[in-house]
Amino acid sequence: MSGVGQRKTKDEVKEALKGIAAEMHNKMERGVPPSMTLPVRAKTNIGFDNKLGVYKYGKKKSTRDATSLGSARQLLRSLHVTEFIEQMIDSGKSSTLREMYYISEAWGHGKFGSQNESNNLAEDLEIVTKCLREDFKLRPEEDGARIIGNVTFEERNRKGDWMRINCRDDVGDSGYGVPYNVESEKLSLVEEDVDFIMAIETGGMFDRLVENGFDEEARCALIHLKGQPARSTRRIMKRMSQEWNKPIIVFADCDPWSFRIYASIAYGAIKTAHISEYLATKGAQYLGITADDILAYDLPSDDLTKQDLSALDSELTDPRFNSGYWKDQINLMKEIGKKAEQQSLAKYGLDFVTDTYLPEKLKDIGLGY
Amino acid sequence: MGGPSGGNNMVDARDISGKQKQIAVSEFFEKNKHFLGFDSLQRSLITAVKESVDNSLDACEEARILPNIVVEINRLKGEDVELITQDNGPGIPRDAIENVFGKFLLGSRFHAIRQTRGQQGIGITGVVMYAQLTTGAKTRVISKIATDSSAVFVELGLDTRKNKAIKSKERREIWIDEGTGEEIRHGLKISTIMKAKYQRGKQSVYQYLRMTSIVNPHATISLIVKGKDGEIIEEGKWMRTSERLPRVVEEIKPHPHGIQLGTLQRMLRESEQRKMTSFLRHNFSGVSVRAAKEVLSVSEIEDDRVPKRINSEDAKKLISSFQKVKLLPPPTDCLSPIDDLLIKKGLSKAIDSRFASTVTRLPAVSQGNPFQIEVGLVFGGDISADGPIEVLRFANRVPLMYQQGGCALTKAIESIDWKRYGLDHPGGKGLPKGAAAVLIHLASTNVQFTSEAKEAVADNEEVFDEIRKGLLEVGRGLKNHLKKKDQRKKAKEKFELVNVILPEIAKKTSKILGRNEPDLAPVITQIMNAVFCEEELGWDKERKLATCSIKIFNYTARARAYTILLKWPESENVSMVENSKGGRKEARGIWAWRLDTLNPGTSTTIEVALSGLGKGDWTDTDVFFRGNGDIIGATKIDEKILEEIRKSEALVAIRNEISESEIQEISEIVMEDREEKIEEEIRSDEINIFADYEEVSE
């Protein structure tokens, strides 16, 4: 795989896509069913890449070949998508994944059965061609994050002009909306006056910190993740961490799903492990809420559900959580059988989170102020 | 067969009318209304409809009339409900009306050794009684018999002390149909008002009539239920699907195996014969001269003893020697099975399903009582897949609607391991789950119930075994159907893959790369790697022929040679009028074609057309093959089954030449053989499935 930042030219992208068709064509010429080879996309096939400091797909490959109707349809779809991308590259257009899903209506037997299928196929093509979705001119539907804090970006607007935006002074309460493409051709990081960047899982907590003026008090930029963060959100965090050399702190609920949000930011997500080095922020730290916090702060909590427990068990065998810290946290959580939301801190008043909890926790990791 | 367990609580109605006249019949009715089916407002209405409809069906059957039955229920004020039933039956002669509507005939009806619906109820008198007791209403009857010039209009009440009907307002008049304005030539209309409640659901008049229509495909039945303001609450119409009336059943004499001491003593007392051998021969079925002599010698009773004078000691000896001497089984023409094809029609008119399998077992005998089991199973279509399957129980064509759990028919269903036949059966206990309905019909001269309520059939080993055998047969049909469906789906997918998707892939890659399209034949062989068979049944509208085309594709890398066998509904009326590939008859209903060698990548088609069938008569068939290597979509022929078919052919051939009793014995042997075969086949089926699975997954 080519390294980060080494973006491909249009011709290189088209050539890479042709490779997919060539693999199939060559097989048919040899009298065997056409196929496409992909890495196994499961937690059993991700491993830590020492050089990059993130989790990447391992060596396990799966072959999608035309011996079953479902796989054959996938292959046909891949070819249609390939053709469609080529057309877009040639005509200088782009489309959303959803638009591609609708365009596939005209593809006869190659049309998608659901939006999910088209999303997954776009990822498959990225993996096989070692290109990025952006190279394919495909945009996600997903919402980018919101940022508030004393950081300044330049974003190229629709007219092609660069616009300078300070995320404290030039935005309203909802903050700066991160666009789906945060690559250098669209966005540049201009300047900052913060000590760290804090990513927050829930909107309610983000708004609480904004209202309490936490960004200025603690000299940080606040990012609202909106649940499982979109690719552009993870990418902009990665760039801020890399280009500004700022620590990334994750503040989320205490439940197994939030742990996964953290893991996707710090180590890479299983689904996008082919571009982990491009999306994951090595060294991002989990601040809370932890199972320890539930006990230490006596937080209102809910019982773990069956699904929660099986998610926790699954995390115990996930290589990304294979550290003493996470094993302790997960086991403690199973032991007390509880989970808690960020907003449970409100038990001690609206200012408790900014006056007590966060300062104490930040001090623990050496970011006291 | 044990006696009905609830029987002891029951007072015999004849005793009331006879010896104990001082007890009012109304009191008897009050005391026993639970057994009589009048214990709740909801059930009373069902029972009333049932008594009336059963009578209509029996009367029409005897008079050889295709029944049209109309049931109308109108809610009046309070809990009052008007019930009107009308049939096109023979009607009741004027002088018999009092007896039919005014006498409790409870006991005597049970003693007729013959299969009738009426065995199971208190009779229409119960309805008259119930109406009178709850609302004081008289029952209005219109009866017209074909030979009279006018109809009898009369109102009936009951003298509950004398167990007698009281007629009033009797007149004779031409009976005009309100709908058509035409004179009604024969028929019966009953209307009355009773306290009752109309309720929908599993135990409703609607369900009772729906079930009745399934087992009486020769009847057209309609129901209309109206509310207090004349609004229609529920409606149903079940059209006849067969013009064939059930055959008239013969009354038979009791068989010694089923006789009890009391009955035997009564028969001896009432006998007019002078010799014991003639007594035995004339009063029982299944007793030949030789058998009668043997019974007497085993009992140590002289032939010249006068039967009237036989004491109870000797009667007991007779009973025990009945069990020791070899007797002929009772004749079975006293039974009236519905016939599996008609059950299929009846089921498909009431339930929209994808698959129906029915079987009529040969008559069997339990302790001197002939009985016959019919089983039907429908699957798929509109049937709800949630929860347990629907159970449709019938005894002598009468739906059983209550006490499902305690019924031997239900227990027989529960005793089958349905998982093996493709139904969900959690823990192998209780009823299986899934989109299926199972019908069981027990036809018998003496249906034994668990209680006088006559809603649940009592346990009986022979009956239980027969039902199980029938269920296994339809279960096997279901299993084949599901297997075929699955195979067909897989084959269809593969065909789409190689015929549609793969060529498109090749076209696209060629276009993207600007290269020539590759030859796909070797790729297709590799993907399919199997021989496929697809049969299609059709209907040639113009020539009124049922058609079948069988296509065989060889998608393997080597040449194959097969014999293909087709199951077809061969009979006197059905013949194969077109046959593209010749072949030969392998057995009755099985045609075989020895095919030329089928080279890799080639296919061949067999086309046949049958005359003598109606549209929709041939909807399901089996294709078998003989040869090496599997064919997806066909079953490897089991030579044992062929053998079995040939055996039953032989049985049919000799049927005309030998006596009935011998046939019985032969058929028993054949049937036993056949059951073993079925069991074996089921086992070998399982092995085949795995073979198929491996074939596909390769």
Structural commentary:
Helices cover 41% and strands 18% of the residues of chain A. Chain A contains 13 helices and 17 strands. Chain A has helices spanning 10-29, 69-91, 97-103, 115-129, 203-211, 214-217, 231-244, 256-266, 276-279, 291-296, 306-316, 324-336, 352-364, and strands spanning 35-39, 46-49, 54-57, 61-65, 95-96, 138-139, 146-148, 151-156, 162-166, 176-177, 187-192, 196-200, 220-224, 248-251, 285-288, 302-303, 338-339. The longest helix of chain A has 23 residues, at 69-91. An eight-stranded mixed beta sheet of chain B has the order 5-4-3-6-2-1-7-8. In chain B, strands 9, 10, 11, 12, 13 and 14 form a six-stranded mixed beta sheet that branches. Chain B has a five-stranded mixed beta sheet with strand order 18-21-16-15-23. The two termini of chain B are 55 Å apart. The chains are: A alpha/beta (369), B alpha+beta (698).
Distance between the termini of chain A: 41 Å
Question: What's the CATH class of the largest domain in chain A, please?
Answer: Alpha Beta
Q: Unreliable stretches of chain A, pLDDT < 50, 5 or more residues?
A: 1-5
Radius of gyration of chain B: 30 Å
Radius of gyration of chain A: 22 Å
| Main interface: chain pair and counts | A-B, 27 and 24 residues
Per the CATH scheme, the topology name of the largest domain in chain A is: Dna Topoisomerase Vi A Subunit, Chain: A, domain 2
Major sheet: arrangement of strands of chain A: 10-7-13-12-14-15
Q: What are the low-pLDDT stretches of chain B, counting only 5+ consecutive residues below 50?
A: 1-22, 106-112, 678-698
Oligomer: heterodimer
For the record, the count of structural domains of chain B works out to: 5
**Proportion of residues in β-strands of chain A:** 15-25%
What series of H and E elements makes up the topology of chain A? HEEEEHEHHEEEEEEEHHEHEHHEHEHHEH
Helix content of chain A: 40-55%
The first-level CATH class of the largest domain in chain B is given as Alpha Beta
